Amino acid sequence: MARNFGFLVLILSIILICEAVIFNPITDSHRSAALELFTPVDGSLGSLEETYEALRTFEILGIEKKPDIRASTCPSVVDTLGSSSSSPKDLFYSFKVNGLLKCESNEEVFAGITPRLKASVNDVNILLDFYYLIGSLVLIKDQASEVDVLLGDGDRIFQSIKDLSQSDGRWRYSSNNPGSSTYAAGIALETLAGVVSLSSSEIDQSLIGALKNDIVKLFDGIEKYDDGAYYFDEKLVDTREYQGSLSATSSVVCGLTAFATATSESLDLPGEKILGLAKFLLGIGIPGNAKDLYNQIAALACLESNRVSVPLSTVLGSSAPPLSVKLVQAFSSGSKDASIIENQELKFDPENAVHFLDALPKSVDVGNYIFVFEIVFHDPEHKKIYAIGGRRKVTIYVTGVIKVDSTEIAVLDSDLGSIETQKKLDLAGENALSLSANHLQKLRLSFHLTTPLGHAFKPHQAFLKLKHETKVEHIFVLGNSGKKFEIILDFLGLVEKFFYLSGRYDIQLTVGDAVMENSFLQALGHVELDLPEPPEKATRPPPQPVDPYLRYGPKAEITHIFRSPEKRPPQELSLAFLGLIFLPFIGFLVGLLRIGINLKNFPTSAVPATFAILFHLGIAAVLLLYALFWLKLDLFTTLKALGFLGIFLMFVGHKILSHLASTSAKLKSA
Fold first, then answer.
1. What is the distance between the alpha carbons of residues 163 and 338, in angstroms, rounded to a whole number?
2. What confidence tens digit (pLDDT) does each residue in 175-195 have?
3. C-beta of residue 527 within 8 angstroms of C-beta of residue 437
4. Exposed (0-12), middle (13-18) or buried (19+): which is 331, by Cβ within 10 Å?
5. Which of 115, 221, 269, 293 could form a Cys-Cys staple with 287, CB 3.0–4.6 A?
6. For the chain, which residues make up each domain, given as ranges?
7. Closest CA to 391 of 239, 234, 228
């Protein structure tokens, strides 16, 4: 790696069915996510730190139609820079936001802050304080070139920060905190890069050399995924200081590139690991929160990273330098020595900026192949700037339709080996064969598998399954000899495995492979097995798992069967019976007329008359209740209502009868 470590990482892949995960470059989806995650609330993006992260993300992604927050943010920036009580962190992010929004350009303000920052650098011993103070001086240097920000004792400050480093390349946040952090290592590297750029004299090379050794040790502890992606994981330090793998990786990448840019030393780091860091950052996809999105985009900007598929370019849209892509070797995964392609340069389509292999040799059959690619720069000097990760091996799956023929199933006599029943099958269609066998016979199934070029094909999966009507299953692996696959089931030796269960067994054949386009799982039919009775101590079949849906699902609806209604009598008989019921009532009315009923004794005073009226209404209500019981009410409802009416009638009846008795007594005494 050369002096300018702001390198471009190029990762090669092929637009075929590959074993590796294909990582997509930065796209408009990231821009849409940025606008969604960094949404102003009441015209503000939050704190100065959050505001800077949003603005920096918009800048890197080239978002032009970003929220206008200048009116709400600049007053806060100006107030922070003008206040003598502002914390180092607030000053640091105020300078960062000011560099993007240009809120304050008065060099007198910067000149007034600088002495305070220089004095504070000599008094602190906490890494984050060094980071904010040194970073602020670097930003002043960029925004106000006339202000003197140089440090006269750069070696001492460098050594003070270096004292916080650990033997494994990680760093402590302070001398009082024994826990070390990978995230802190990135912060320290960026801070030391600032010390190098601010020092009035060249930093002692022994200090630079020691720091380079720390960087190598840090990379020795890098983590790796199976797909070749590398990342830095944070060890558990203080819970308040814990950072995830994305934050730790972003911190180290940005700190590393800042330090490499500030020094004239070369950093001899493996290109494979630099390439793996880019793969990790790209493999994340689109983070779901604003902090992670900023960390991802900021780290990719530091790498000025890649696109992991042909065509070759950077993730941020820059074009790759002139180069060639060579297919060094292609061979079958099962036979490394027999190469099908060697040292063939891929053609380049300038219109689409795509490197492609126009055709494969005719000898390429279905199967797994390893393609080895190499990137060759036209300008040898680019090797010092760009990391390409060396040769890339990619697994290619060449798929095709496998021919299945000569499929036969037969029942054989166990003693003589003669064929009792034999049937041909068409595995391309439906089959519903019906066979029968006993424990003295055998079942044989055979078929041939052939590739499009006529070679024998061995799939990853070839199973025969017999499933009893009680749901007990038995699976057998088919063996092969060349193109022929065959299995013979000797039922005499399988009676114990079958738990002596006679009856119907459904037959199912499964043949599948990643490169077999016509993989299948097909029911062939059934066989009726007649097995001997189990002995007393024979193993019983295992209990079959109960379907949770049957146990906890909805139960069957219960249907009540009521007694059929009895046949009703003729309508004329019912009407005649109704007339007989009304005869006593009519007789009652006639009797009342015969005895000369009158209302002469009906009370005339208000209170007795009210009780009399209520009594007669109560009697009418009882009669109405009887009618409702006859028409619609049940017995319990009727009795409940009759109880209330009875109590009411007893009360008002007692009152009216008492009045009548009193009136009668007065008449007799008169």
1. 56
2. 887 778 899 999 999 999 999
3. yes
4. middle
5. 293
6. 150-304, 309-398, 411-552, 602-664
7. 228
